[in-house]
Design goal:
The structure is a single chain. It contains 4 helices and 6 strands, in the order ααββααββββ. The chain has helices at about 25-35, 45-50, 95-105, 110-120, and strands at about 55-65, 70-80, 130-135, 145-155, 160-170, 175-185.
Length: about 200
């Protein structure tokens, strides 16, 4: 089991999550989202945990790539409603909040399809650490707007992992942001006692 994913709780209901990922994979992903909400036994006041508490996992799948049908891609869809805590002074969703939804470590929208594909095809899902996150903002999201975050894998190598993410405004039928996230699997620390610079 990857670092950061605890054993899934038995009271988590996966029936509301569409897609062909196994119930176990859906269970672990829902468990990761829920663990942010109650990692200390009470709701955390960190912005990351507050945003994570708003995310609703709606799909987890492994699909044939359209361009290369013999290859597979992970696909995850998450929904969130823009509320007051996500707004900037102009009453639009803050770009930093959009970026956090895309990039929140293992619970992020762009990381989940990487985990789904790895766990579905090799039995080992990986999260990695961020190397690069490129975001293009296309249009604002307003208070009460329902967002649909669609993330798919681009490539999964032994060290390099990449995904793309599109944040769609369901309420206003427009693209809010798109991103490409490059991650890597860090090497294991060596046993030597001193670090070299």
């Amino acid at each position: 089991m990857p670092r950061g994913i605890k054993a899934a709780r038995s009271d988590i209901d996966t029936s509301q999550v569409d897609g062909n990922a196994s119930p176990e994979i859906k269970h672990r992903m829902l468990g990761a989202l829920q663990s942010m909400r109650r990692s200390t036994g009470k709701p955390s006041s960190s912005l990351e945990n507050k945003i994570a508490s708003r995310l609703q996992l709606t799909e987890a799948s492994t699909l044939s790539k359209t361009e290369e049908p013999e290859k597979f891609e992970g696909r995850v869809v998450i929904q969130v409603i823009v509320d007051e805590e996500l707004l900037n002074v102009d009453q639009n969703m803050h770009g930093g909040c959009t970026a956090m939804i895309i990039d929140m470590h293992m619970r992020s929208c762009s990381t989940m399809p990487i985990y789904v594909l790895g766990a579905s095809t090799s039995g080992h899902g990986e999260f990695g650490v961020s190397q690069s996150l490129n975001i293009v903002y296309h249009s604002p999201a307003l208070l009460g707007d329902k967002l649909r975050v669609v993330s798919t894998t681009l490539a999964l190598g032994s060290r390099a992992l990449s995904s793309r993410c599109e944040v769609w405004n369901v309420t206003r039928h427009r693209l809010v942001a798109s991103a490409v996230h490059i991650k890597m699997v860090p090497s294991k620390p060596k046993a030597s006692g001193s670090a070299k610079l």
